[in-house]
Amino acid sequence: MLTTLKGLVLRERSVGENDKFLDILTDSAGLIEVSAKGVKKQNSKNASVSQAFCYANYCLSESGGRYILNSAEPIRTFFGVSFDLDKFALANYFAEMVLYAETEEKPNDEVLRLILNSLHFLALGNRENLLLKSIFELRLICDIGLTPNLIGCCECFEYSAPEMQFDLKNGRLYCQSCFGGRSLENVELLDERLLHFIRFIALSDMQKIFNLTVPRDYLKLLSGICERYAEIQLGRHFKTLDFFKSLQNG
Ligand SMILES: [Zn+2]
After folding, report:
1. Does 31 share its domain with 50?
2. CB 125 within 8 A of CB 86
3. Which of 1, 2, 4, 85 has its CA 20 to 30 A from that of 57?
């Protein structure tokens, strides 16, 4: 059966001399694996649409849940991120997180929109890498259904205080008096600005979140908190993150 799906290639894997397997996040079939035959040959018409970070209309033959690439019409390519090592590392980190988090076959439009927008701004280069990283990490977790409860202190409902404790494991806030003598493991201290940034990323419309401006001295803090939240919620540490971080220290 022939089917057409709009999707973004998250990862390509070589098979033999000429072929590839592609992991594609699609708009209506979730995450799928596609066999792309002959695409490593120089004259293959499908060579460019079989690369990571190509967003295209894929025409596929499907049988029993297995997909074979027939042809494709590119919509947008983000190959530009490959020319900058920091951006390339971050794009691969985003892709690895989605590959890990999107295990269900049901489509998740918000996750596809999130990664397309993140790659767009990454390629454009007019947003700080650490801002895009923070947005992606926190929003991905929200978009897969693990939004923290940010309404206020989970015990007394205080909306805002000069300092609040963010329980990363249970996804909730405590004011200092309700937090009491709880363990500080898996907890981050938020001042009012950090709390505002986190609420903004988690709760605003997708079109708005990329317009968030964060002063440079807050970016590292925000990025560290979003990273820990994602890692604790997914229960997984990503090698692509280590690679991105190794570039920041060099
Ligand atoms: Zn309280």
Report:
1. yes
2. no
3. 85
Distance 164 CA to ligand 1 centre (A): 9
Report the number of distinct structural domains present in the chain: 2
For residues 144 and 69, membership in a common domain is answered with no
DSSP 65: T
CA of 188 to the centre of ligand 1 (A): 16
- Centre of ligand 1 from the C-alpha of residue 137, in Å: 27
- Half-sphere exposure (CA, 13 Å, Cβ side) for 74? 14
86, amino acid identity: D
Domain limits for position 155: 80-249
Based on the domain organization, do 33 and 110 belong to the same domain?
Answer: no
71 & 104 share domain: no
Nearest by Cα to 94 from 132, 56, 60: 132
CA distances from 185 to 142, 165, 189, 218, 250 (A): 22, 11, 11, 22, 29
Q: Give me the helices (H) in the chain, please.
A: 85-101, 109-124, 129-141, 176-179, 192-203, 206-209, 216-234, 239-249
CATH of the domain at 84: 1.20.1440.120
Q: How many angstroms does the Cα of residue 65 sit away from the middle of ligand 1? A: 50
Question: Distance from the CA of 223 to the center of ligand 1, in angstroms?
Answer: 25
pLDDT digits (tens, 9 = 90+) for 113-154: 999 999 999 999 999 999 999 999 999 999 999 999 999 999
> What's the pTM?
0.95
